[in-house]
Design goal:
- The structure is a homodimer.
- By secondary structure, chain A is an alpha+beta fold.
- Chain A folds into 2 domains: 127 residues, Jelly Rolls, CATH 2.60.120; 90 residues, Winged helix-like DNA-binding domain superfamily/Winged helix DNA-binding domain (Arc Repressor Mutant, subunit A, Orthogonal Bundle), CATH 1.10.10.
- In chain A, 43% of the residues lie in helices and 20% in strands.
- Chain A contains 10 helices and 10 strands.
- Chains A and B meet through strand 4, helix 5 and helix 7 of A and strand 4, helix 5 and helix 7 of B.
- Chain A binds a DNA duplex through helix 8.
DNA sequence: CGACTGGTTGAGTATGGTCAACTTCGGTGG
DNA sequence: CCACCGAAGTTGACCATACTCAACCAGTCG
């Protein structure tokens, strides 16, 4: 190097992962960020593009800067399933002891991610307890969300799943639980593959929620929640008369 | 105390969590175990018993010693869903920032667990890198298994789900991938609630796998795998002609 | 404008859910 | 040891939800 560059590279300086105290890069010192920015690989991905296998090979730790990344599995006969959604701040650690295929990461919206190699990430985890805490919290949250998602897929009807999906989107969006209008974020086909439905069923289900007066569809991707208690009851699997009362 | 007790309490001395190098207590020094055994709460639970809320209040970290623990959610109208199965060595960390209800832990077989309080667990994680590594590995594995389970629930037919369940049981059992005869571990109703089916469908599905010559049912809870490649193809969602060829 | 992608609508169907009856198993007590 | 009881599991008939397939519609981009 020409001279000791004690400044943070631009790619990190303005990164969204520093802008919220809950996010990983907000835990780091200037020195750590300088070092990190020499090793990190921020990348933009277009919708439907997979995260390059070559990138993952060297850099198996992915932090989602913005957009939505899906973990996609394709069954032998072509059925596609999206097992997990990753949103801003989520840390995806694809390293596994057993070398079973783990599915593929695909951008479901235009997205930006930041890829790290094992050594850098492990060192950061070891040396910075705040990074470690944030990362472990994120893993715990992922485990918890995965459990809730399993409940959705296991026992809920199509309208119930869609109600649950609307709340899931809202929770993960800027503004969170106070938003009245939620962005569905994904295309119908992706919502379908994530919620274990067909695109047609998603369409009919959303219409059904609208017919019941629970939501209003604003264009193709926005939903306004009209009756939040009832929508919540429905998402929690309450029978019709309970949801109506809510 | 009467005198410095430098011995490990019996409850820890013979614990299965020390007997395998992958498990959490096998990472600990004698000194740590002595200290730990003063704080840990090994408990036996009968099938269908929930893990006591009082225990969890004080000790939100649970290690599964043996048996199967399920994370159960009950919907507003009574439908029951088992989101996750925890087996020997799994570490359940129920602490969450947001105080949303997280479901209930229930023993699905006679089980033994060991409950720890936050402080003890966090200190152990901080002071012992091996404990930390094992625990983080376990969390990563849980995230991964949850993703696979979501694929099962989202897009697979009843026989496919049951084939996948048989492999999941085998993987988690002593002997693992080499076993020919697998213990289904759970009752039909619990398998149903875990795989997003009804008990009747589980029964019919297992019969169907038997009819196709993929498995043989030995009593109510044992299954012998007769055609492993074909069963695997089926579990992976291959169409009938591919599975038959396998 | 035409081609394309994404979304919606409709008709028919199949898979798995529901409900009820029945069987098997395992434990308990006479 | 067998009789009995309750829990667990299986079977069958019927039915509903969501899937399939096809046509159609609405934007968008060259």
């Amino acid at each position: 190097m020409d001279r000791p560059a004690a400044t943070i590279a631009d790619k990190c300086r303005f990164c969204a992962l520093r802008m919220d105290s809950q996010l990983i890069c907000a835990q780091m010192s200037v020195g750590e960020l300088v070092e990190l920015s020499a090793r990190s690989n921020p990348t933009s991905i277009n919708r439907k593009q997979p995260v390059s296998a070559r990138l993952l090979q060297r850099n198996p730790i992915i932090a989602v800067i913005d957009g939505v990344i899906g973990l996609q599995h394709v069954l032998k006969d072509g059925r596609r399933s999206i097992a997990t959604l990753f949103w801003q701040g989520d840390i995806i650690d694809l390293r596994r002891p057993t070398q079973r295929p783990a599915g593929q990461l695909v951008a479901l919206t235009p997205a930006r991610i930041c890829a790290l190699d094992s050594e850098t990430f492990d060192r950061l985890m070891r040396d910075n307890p705040d990074v470690q805490a944030v990362t472990i919290d994120n893993m715990r949250e992922q485990i918890h969300l995965a459990a809730e998602h399993s409940v959705d897929l296991g026992k809920k009807s199509a309208p119930e799943r869609l109600a649950a999906y609307i709340f899931e989107c809202r929770r993960r969006q800027l503004g969170g639980d106070s938003l009245k209008t939620v962005d569905l974020a994904l295309r119908r086909a992706d919502i379908a593959d994530y919620m274990g439905l067909q695109p047609e069923t998603v369409s009919r289900g959303l219409k059904e929620l609208e017919r019941r007066g629970l939501i209003a569809l604003k264009g193709r991707s926005k939903v306004t929640i009209l009756n939040e208690p009832a929508l919540r009851e429905l998402a929690n699997g309450a029978p019709a008369h309970m949801a109506a009362r809510a």
